[in-house]
Specification:
This protein has 8 helices and 17 strands. By secondary structure, it is of the alpha+beta class. The protein has 2 domains: 90 residues, Rieske [2Fe-2S] iron-sulphur domain (Rieske Iron-sulfur Protein); 253 residues, Naphthalene 1,2-dioxygenase Alpha Subunit, Chain A, domain 1 (Alpha-Beta Complex). Strand 14 and strand 15 form a beta hairpin. Helix 1 packs antiparallel against helix 8, helix 5 crosses helix 7 and helix 5 runs antiparallel to helix 8. It is globular and about 85 Å long.
């Protein structure tokens, strides 16, 4: 058996790191998991933050988190803290959470509400559009207009908030947005409210978190709560006599469901672009088993008030939307659940899960938070353990890249292909 171990030293020169990373990228074997250094090396983690999280559109929040003027959230991406705030004109803006005076962090809390943005150090004060409006003792020649907060690129895709830290963000996001709006708009996420949010720390590399999400090969036996609403052959199966009847039945259910939903104005067809563009994405609306209404323990809606008055039935399937490098989302008739993956170190990752319901839904009357969150709280904790098992295994001298199933792990391969392509572009100085 040939094993691969990290050769990245504790304090390598930048040129040495680049050379080692380039070699690892070039010898990546298609259809196999990545070599151990991609999961373990802090130097490669730094490259991930520069070439992936520093240059691409990152999903960070949902618009209902900043529902009213002055509402804000902060998001840390590597060394950068980002302040997202809704201004008085109801526009959502993003800024570096750094005072233009001497660099103090402006807002230290994850979320809250404010009238103006006031630096806690010397009370420099900015309005909600980032303009400096007050700075004592700076003299008559000081020009406030030259000291506005540094802006961060932000896009609101039907209630999903994406930021890009690059000076020039990938331009293909506008095309992705145009293609996705018809799918997402009927669920009216912009008009929802946050019913619950949970942050989970996984002691594993962020790529293992994403790889685990991109397949359901592991679901049977690991996710008893989630699989209640999943059709057995809905997450892949090897064709053959033993599966032929089940696959054919599932494909017919999908075909019939798509026809019904499309007639209702709900786009449902699969779009597969995870590894074919800079802003990789995938979507599809799929039926759910049993009552087929929502991802709950009994597969019935968790919220009595549906997301739109246009929804005339509860069984609208689950619209899934994946984006590279760090998110997945499930849109149902009664609620939306979104997942944002934020790397913390080579061996530590934060998964933030947010559940949204209709803004007029009343807790304890229309929905129960425990019921709403039960499936994914259980599933996230189960996935945490699996990611941690994988990270521990990658550290073993016996670890070597293993083959992906072509029937159940094709989306894992798509993620790794996208990642390797984007890292190669970063190392080579391309885009």
């Amino acid at each position: 058996m040939t094993t691969q171990t990290s050769t990245v030293t504790l304090h390598p020169r930048a040129a040495d790191v680049q050379a080692q990373l380039s070699a690892l990228l070039e010898r990546r074997r298609a259809g196999y998991s990545l070599e151990a250094p991609f999961y373990l090396s802090e130097e490669i983690f730094k490259a991930d933050m520069e070439y992936v999280f520093g240059r691409h559109w990152i999903f960070v929040a949902v618009a209902p988190q900043v529902a009213e003027p002055g509402d804000f959230i902060t998001v840390d991406v590597g060394q950068d803290s980002i302040l997202i705030v809704r201004d008085d004109d109801m526009n959502i803006k993003a800024f570096h959470n750094v005072c233009r005076h001497r660099g103090s962090r402006l807002c230290d809390e994850h979320q809250g509400s404010l009238g103006n943005i006031v630096c806690p150090y010397h009370q420099w004060t900015y309005d909600l559009e980032g303009k400096l409006i007050h700075a004592d003792h700076m003299g008559d020649t000081f020009l406030r207009e030259q000291h506005s907060l540094h802006k961060v690129h932000l896009r609101n895709l039907e209630g999903l908030l994406f930021i890009c830290l690059a000076d020039e963000p990938p331009q293909d996001f506008e095309e992705v947005a145009a293609r996705m709006r018809p799918y997402l708009a009927p669920h009216k996420l912009n008009e929802c409210k946050v019913a619950a949010q949970v942050e989970l720390i996984e002691e594993g590399n962020w790529k293992l978190t994403m790889e685990n999400n991109r397949e359901c090969y592991h679901c049977v036996g690991n996710h008893p709560e989630l699989t209640i609403s999943l059709y057995e052959h809905g997450f892949g199966a090897q064709p053959g006599p033993q599966n032929a009847e089940g696959i054919a039945r599932f494909e017919q259910i999908v075909k019939d469901s798509h026809a019904r939903w499309e007639a209702m104005g709900l786009p449902s067809a699969r779009i597969e672009e995870l590894d074919t563009r800079v802003t990789g994405f995938r979507t599809q609306r799929l039926p759910m088993d049993r009552a087929g209404e929502s991802q709950t323990m009994n597969t019935e809606v968790a919220c009595k008030k549906l997301l739109s008055d246009q929804f005339t039935e509860k069984s609208l399937g689950g619209l899934s939307f994946w984006t590279q490098p760090n998110s997945w989302h499930h849109f149902m008739s009664d609620h939306v659940v979104s997942f944002s993956v934020i790397p913390l170190s080579a061996g530590r990752t934060m998964v933030r899960t947010t559940w949204c319901v209709h803004k007029d839904a009343v807790e304890g009357v229309d929905y129960d938070v425990a019921n709403l969150t039960a499936v994914w709280n259980a599933t996230n904790d189960q996935d945490r353990r699996l990611v941690e098992f994988s990270h521990a295994g990658a550290a073993s001298k016996a670890y070597e890249p293993g083959p992906y199933s072509p029937f159940t792990e094709s989306l894992v391969e798509a993620f790794c292909t996208w990642y390797v392509d984007r890292m190669r572009a970063g190392v080579s100085g391309g885009r």
